[in-house]
Amino acid sequence: MSYAASAFLLTGETIDVTAGRMGFRYFGRSPELGPIEILITDIPGIVFSGDLESSDGLPDYDQKSSPLKKVNGENLNAYTFKTRNAQHALMNAFKEKGQEAFETDIKHHERFLMELGIRGGIWLEGDAKVKDGRAVFKNPRIKPYEVKTDFRIASIDIENGVNIDSLFSIAIHMKGCGPERKKVLMLDDHSHEMNDFTTCFNTETDLLNAFMDYIAAEDPDIIIGWNVIGYDLAQLQKYCERNYLDFKLDRLGKEPDIFSPMMGVSFAFMSGRVVIEGMSAIRDMGYTFKNNRLETVAVELLGEGKLIHDEDDKLAEIERQFLEEKENLAKYNLQDVELVTRLFEKIGVVEFMATRTCLSGVMFSQLEINNAILENLWIPEIHKGGFVALGDGEKKTSRNDAYRYLASEAGVHDNVVQLRIPQITAWLASLFDIDPYSLAQAENGEELPWGAKRLKDQAFIAKELKKLLTYRSQFKDCDWQCRAVNHTLKQCMEESLKSANRFFTPTYKGAIMQACAWLTEEINQGLLAVSAKLVASNDTSLYVSVEEYSELDVETHLNQCIQNACSDLGLEAVVPLCEKIAIFEKILFIKRNNDNFLRYAYLCEEGEVKITGLYNTGPRWTQLAHYFQEELMKQILTGKDWQVWIREFTESVRDGAHRDKISYFRKVKQSDLLEKKDQAQVVALLKYLDYYKPTAPVNVISYIMTLDDGPVPSVLNPRTPDIEHYIESQLARVANPYLALVGKTFEELFHAEQLSLFEF
């Protein structure tokens, strides 16, 4: 049957169709048709290189002159092929001859959309048949189209044991493009319906199969959760493996590809479904919180917490409820998934992700890959200019050595105005038309203020940056759209300035740094004229200290100064530089060694300390450190004698105060029990295992450092905590960056006090 409809693409992949022939498969959601699948089988792959002297023994491919050339003007050929064998043979031939090939790493299904200018939304026309509840098109006519659609979303969460080695339950909350459904699947000693939303199974195998069947039946486009990739999906995959089950979760009944390229970063790719990690998505939107726990974020954004609070012994309570109060555990599990759904709806997380796709053309599943964003925006413009993309893509790494526009004057500052600015390196690149291509072979180009030259008509990325900055100005009153533009700009510029990126050149990075120096000088000169001062800055904000009771409109003044400076150079900015967003009566800036972040704290009207970039998070910190830092900041920001307070607080800890805050909480791998026996958390866990002899593996431990027995499990209530250990590793480490403001260290603070005892 023939259809004409709009759709929003979610995932794509290059596949083998028949006999090694390549094809492309896409999945998406159509407002008119529901879930769709698109197969493209008649588009060849392509790479670029010079003349290949001999093609003897190579599989079929086509070679013809290409309109694209290298950045030095050298002509290239386009090599097209329809099979993977031909592609691999060509690559080997280029390699054997030492011949440079270009754009060999670009995935064929991504190039197809990129060259068509498709950014999320499409209009398609063609024949389709219905299969597994979705319309399947083969080689339809496709063009870019602006699409607004809802998605079917599944919020999922699991509960499992630590001392009890078992999956307890799985909760699913379905919303969008169909009826809302709430379901909990739980393990019990017999199969039955516990209540109107909970079904129990007597084996882990049956529970897992029921979950996979439920997902297949509800057919969500998007799966969301809190640490859903790094924990929930990874654990479910592990449980499936030990029950000899295939973890069938995507729209083709295949297992998801779950991997973690670095600590704390996880990805999950699957055909037809997208997984959105709640923690990282909300962080990408620019929100900051005291920690990343769902409880913390839900209380701040929704005003409600969880049924089992984080400050309780959560793991023990979950295990107790599983054994004694399964219905309460089901309610808790369901509340978690509902909280995540409401969080996503409250701040527009899915809309934020969809807007990023519309801005960059990168599909949902690839949005966290910075170089994908950059290439999708840059390469089509480079091709329009008659060039191939620089490099071959093999330089891509996660190395993060990008230049950042960052400065701060450590200390407490009064009457500080915060000015929001566009992503500043993007703003400057668009203003000066800075681009690796515009700077290459630009002997006859226009001169920049610092002496370098560039050809404006080859500033390919600058064109896209100007579009994004214009969108940002248009969207500034729409929260999630503005955040989407900001994050896209951030991804582009951070990636382009990494030395490992394919487009990077030292000349390009140098030009960006020179432009930042020019801007800083213009800002400082403009502020000096009105007795104001720039005390801190980063890629998205300026912090300006003004005189008390000053009526200076900093926003208008700075914008006029920069506009005048641009006019003197014959330049015109796409958008104004800054806008005022906050005023701080007092704000404290702190620097740490090799800092890449702006770290500050201030008191809000309610007297609560608001902190950015200064939280001491991670397993090496205790609640004692968190409490000490917040109280110390209050002392500093309210003008108290905070050095005296540090001494008094430290003595109170020596005298026995705050003993409820000194436990460490660490995870321990089973392999650590053999390989890392000297580490404190392993020593403590071994003592726990020896004392309690649990039957199931234990992978978390809470412990206290003691004087006479080293690390001891907190549950054993040790009587002799090593207080000097906590003073040195917690209090001193927190206090030293603040004491550096007055030229002291924690040790010197107490040494001076001891010397005073001998004064007569």
From TrEMBL:
Its EC number is 2.7.7.7. Residues 308-335 form a coiled coil. It is an enzyme of class 2 (transferase). The keyword Ligase does not apply. One of its GO terms (biological process) is SOS response. Keywords: Coiled coil, DNA-directed DNA polymerase, Nucleotidyltransferase, Transferase. GO terms for molecular function: 3'-5'-DNA exonuclease activity; DNA-directed DNA polymerase activity; nucleic acid binding; nucleotide binding. SUPFAM superfamilies: DNA/RNA polymerases, Ribonuclease H-like. The keyword Acyltransferase does not apply. It holds the Pfam family DNA_pol_B_exo1. Residues 101-279 form the DNA-directed DNA polymerase family B exonuclease domain. It comes from the Bacteria. Belongs to the DNA polymerase type-B family. This is DNA-directed DNA polymerase.
